[in-house]
């Protein structure tokens, strides 16, 4: 506002001339509006408003805050699907991608549910699905244990991790690997959500008002020949005794030969989620 106008307004108010003050304030505002309209920024503003008016919108409908773009994924599906289809002709790739996305969403929700202390959160992880829904794909012992470690670490620090407003953008096949004993497919998924970690009620990580863009790799494994499994394969699918750590000789074993603890037989010839990592 013009300094002279401002001085006059102050003097008028001091002298008690409320009506005169109001007139002067309106005059000052009109002058400012005229100056803004004739400026380059004002002309741009008016032009944008005219364009928006044609579509029954206003400038207040526009979100000028910068938004992060979805993460890209390493999708080699076109090159890898023929090889996978040759080895597994009955496999529906699209359905498997959907199952991988569902399991990823369930896993993130389960982390929030268990760290938040919801009812029945002490039941074995992924033992009977999630929220009355069956698991879209079975998981290995290694997968279950890695998620359990994350949950337990959060609990030890009195932290709650939550993922809300989850939106999956895209999933693709990153790799297809073969060993003498197994076949593994790694899927990569671009995802966004509101992600925060709270400690004692205070946000210590993330922004509750800002969407986060990230991607996850989820590896699934299929047993071809149990007699040719490597040590890491055996540990992943549960061929290591959870009580004493001794190797379990066959997938059908119901009891550890060393400590006698009961074991759950591992079904062969099915795909299992083996590892989840954030990129």
Total number of strands: 6
- Unreliable residue runs: none
SS content category: alpha+beta
Helix share of residues?
25-40%
Number of helices: 7
- Please, what is the average pLDDT? 78
Beta-strand portion reads: 15-25%
The shape is elongated
Roughly how many Å apart are the termini?
53 Å
Rg (C-alpha, Å): 30 Å
Largest sheet: 6 strands, mixed
Query: What is the N-to-C order of secondary-structure elements (H for helix, E for strand)?
Result: HHHHHEHEEEEHE
Summarize the structure.
It contains seven helices and six strands; from the N terminus they run H-H-H-H-H-E-H-E-E-E-E-H-E.
Describe the secondary-structure layout:
Elements: H1 3-14, H2 18-38, H3 40-53, H4 77-87, H5 93-115, E1 138-139, H6 141-156, E2 159-178, E3 182-199, E4 202-206, E5 212-223, H7 231-237, E6 272-278
Parallel strand pairs: 1-6
Antiparallel strand pairs: 2-3, 3-4, 3-5, 5-6
Helix pairs in contact: 1-2, 2-3, 5-6
């Amino acid at each position: 506002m013009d300094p002279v106008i401002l001085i006059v307004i102050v003097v008028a108010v001091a002298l008690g001339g409320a009506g005169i003050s109001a007139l002067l304030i309106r005059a000052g505002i009109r002058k400012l509006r005229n100056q803004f309209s004739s400026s380059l920024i004002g002309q741009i503003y008016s032009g944008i408003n005219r364009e928006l008016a044609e579509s029954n919108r206003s400038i207040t409908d526009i979100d000028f805050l910068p938004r992060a773009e979805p993460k890209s994924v390493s999708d080699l599906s076109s090159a890898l699907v023929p090889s996978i289809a040759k080895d597994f002709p009955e496999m529906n790739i699209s359905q498997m991608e959907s199952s991988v996305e569902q399991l990823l969403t369930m896993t993130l929700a389960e982390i929030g549910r268990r760290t938040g202390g919801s009812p029945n959160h002490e039941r074995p992880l992924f033992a009977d699905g999630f929220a009355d829904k069956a698991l879209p794909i079975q998981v290995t012992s290694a997968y279950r244990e890695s998620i359990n470690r994350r949950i337990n670490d959060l609990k030890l620090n009195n932290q709650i991790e939550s993922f809300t407003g989850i939106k999956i953008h895209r999933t693709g096949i990153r790799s297809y690997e073969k060993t003498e004993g197994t076949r593994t497919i790694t899927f990569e998924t671009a995802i966004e959500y509101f992600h925060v970690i709270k400690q004692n009620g205070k946000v210590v990580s993330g922004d509750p008002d800002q969407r986060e863009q990230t991607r996850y790799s989820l590896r699934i494994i299929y047993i071809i020949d149990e007699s040719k499994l490597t040590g890491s394969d055996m540990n992943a699918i549960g061929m290591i005794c959870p009580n004493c750590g001794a190797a379990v000789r066959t997938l059908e074993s119901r009891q550890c030969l060393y400590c006698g603890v009961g074991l759950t037989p591992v079904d062969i010839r099915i795909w299992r989620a083996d590892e989840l990592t954030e990129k």
